[in-house]
Amino acid sequence: MSGMNRRWVLKRRPEGEIAPGDLQFVETPIPALGEDEVLVRNLYLSLDPTNRIWMSDRDQYMPPVEIGDVMRGGTIGVVETSRSERFKAGDIVNTGLGGWQTYTIAPAAIVSPVPMIPGVPLTAFMSVLGATGLTAWFGLMDIGKPQPGETVVVSAAAGAVGSIVGQIAKLKGCRVIGIAGGPEKCAWLTRDLGFDGAIDYKNEDVGDALDRLCPNGIDVNFENVGGKIMDAVFDRMNTFGRMALCGMISTYNDDGPPSGPNDFGRILMRRLLIKGFIIIDYLPRAGEAFAELAPWVASGQIKWKAHVVDGLENAVDALGRLFTGDHDGKLLIRVSPSTI
Ligand SMILES: NC(=O)c1ccc[n+]([C@@H]2O[C@H](COP(=O)([O-])OP(=O)(O)OC[C@H]3O[C@@H](n4cnc5c(N)ncnc54)[C@H](OP(=O)(O)O)[C@@H]3O)[C@@H](O)[C@H]2O)c1
User: Contact, 44 vs 93, CB < 8 A?
Assistant: First the structure.
């Protein structure tokens, strides 16, 4: 196939929030396919807080995106042309980090079929049944190790990862308190997802609210935000408490290393476990999470939402929504039309 590819390229490293000109939208010819390669037309692009980290030249878990390179991002698409025996035109596949572009050429070895489940839309595999759900499940189950009756607190609780964390913790018999921005998101947590309480960090003091809603302290903190919100939770953690450090989104636009908890001694005095994790390390064990999540999703026991923005050209503007909270569910770009 010949034709043009539309793609976002990193032109310079953002300082603070992403500014116009940090990325550039370009058109380039689609090269010919090599042996054992597939050409995939991307259907959905996942927008993730970590995209901002990848644009920076800071110490991180993957190399930063190089200046001049196509922006990195997770994609699902449909095979247009295949030079691999494993795939044929029309197959729906996960291209891994297929990038912010309309077409991805990938070696067949790194492409995997999307396991379709009747009644479950494709967007689920970019959310609750994709890296988002795996992050929630492994962070909570492998690090948080929630026990029935324990109190679990999750920040960015109405977001993609946080909303799944809280629902899993409920299914495991815990008392769950979520921290989210605004009354509507907080109402969704308690009314629709079954959280035991929600704290609107934009309109109330998080520490006071935690004292009210967690009278017996906090056993598990699933940390998505960092900064002052993390401190307020950390200061109330019980002896032998566990903190799964999933993300620190409040710091991603800042220069320099983010601060840790203000009372480091509490880790010793309360014998806390604090463990950072990145989901890629768990991918070999994905089946464990999938085995629990897929039936919960298919039966409706776990609810989830996708916020789909049309058009790859809108990806940069849309990414900013993760930092303002102006989105309702897992943030995705519809790169090209899908009938699935
Ligand atoms: N470790 C891993 O492998 C891994 C994998 C995926 C995600 N993560 C991390 O998980 C966290 C959530 O990611 P997600 O993809 O599920 O995004 P998300 O929660 O759907 O969206 C981000 C949310 O973060 C909240 N937020 C942003 N800036 C904030 C601030 N300054 N203070 C308080 N809250 C703020 C906003 O929630 P409100 O609207 O409620 O304010 C926003 O909606 C991020 O830290 C991300 O880096 C980690």
Answer: no
* Domain ranges within the chain, ordered by starting residue: 4-127+304-334, 131-281
For domain 4-127+304-334, say whether CATH 3.90.180.10 is its number.
yes
Phi (first) and psi of residue 19, to 5 degrees: -115, 160
Pairing of strands 306-310, 218-223: unpaired
- How far apart are alpha carbons 190 and 79 in whole angstroms? 41
CATH H superfamily, domain 131-281: NAD(P)-binding Rossmann-like Domain (3.40.50.720)
Question: Which residue among 322, 324, 333 has the greatest number of ligand 1 atoms within 8 angstroms of its CB, and so is best to mutate?
Answer: 322
Average pLDDT over residues 93-121: 94
Using the mean position of ligand 1's atoms as its centre, give its distance from the Cα of residue 211 in Å.
23
Would you place residue 339 in the very low, low, confident or very high pLDDT band (cuts 50, 70, 90)?
Answer: low
**pLDDT in the model for residue 340:** 62
> What number of helices (H) and strands (E) belong to the chain?
10, 15
User: For residue 49, is pLDDT > 90?
Assistant: yes
Which ranges of 34-77 does DSSP label H, i.e. alpha helix?
50-54
Q: Please answer whether residues 166 and 178 qualify as being in contact, where contact means their C-beta atoms are separated by less than 8 angstroms.
A: yes
Task: Give the chain's length.
Answer: 340
Q: Which atom of ligand 1 is nearest to the CA of 279?
A: 3
**Which of the 8 DSSP states describes residue 142?**
I
Strand partners, 7: 26, 101
pTM of the model: 0.97
Tokens of 340: 């699935």
Helix H or strand E segment including 134: helix 131-138
Q: How far is the CA of 91 from the centre of ligand 1 (A)?
A: 32
- CA of 111 from ligand 1 middle (Å) equals 27
- Pairing state between β 103-107 and 37-46: antiparallel
Ligand 1: centre distance to CA 133 (Å): 14
